[in-house]
Amino acid sequence: MQQPVRAMHKERIMEAIIYFLVWAGLILLMMRFGCGAHVMGHGHNSRTKQSEGGSNTDLRWIAPESAIDPVCGITVHTNAAKSAVHDGHVFYFCSRECRERFEAAPDTYLNQESATLETGGAVHG
Known about the structure:
Distance between the termini: 80 Å
Strand content: 5-15%
Mean pLDDT: 78
Shape: elongated
Structural class: alpha+beta
Low-confidence stretches: 118-123
Number of strands: 4
Strand order of the largest sheet: 1-2
């Protein structure tokens, strides 16, 4: 009696695994080639699609190699810098503290940034 029960249990486990794999494969195919392809970024000719105006919609943001921290005036490498977006512009910071100061009062530092450029720099503080 023990052997047939174990055999039935193993058979049910195998059926469950096969059932799961069939559904997982179906979902994978739909996400890769079907309706989900557009969500996953694998749409047909996604690089050559154009908007109604005829311009290419494949725009890509490329950060500059370096930027000036608007809080302390230090030149930072953007690949390792903290960043924040304000009024449609990306600003880069040397530290989390400078970014938090900027986010608390961005207009203060934007006005200070134009004055700093005229005077030639600021001290980190």
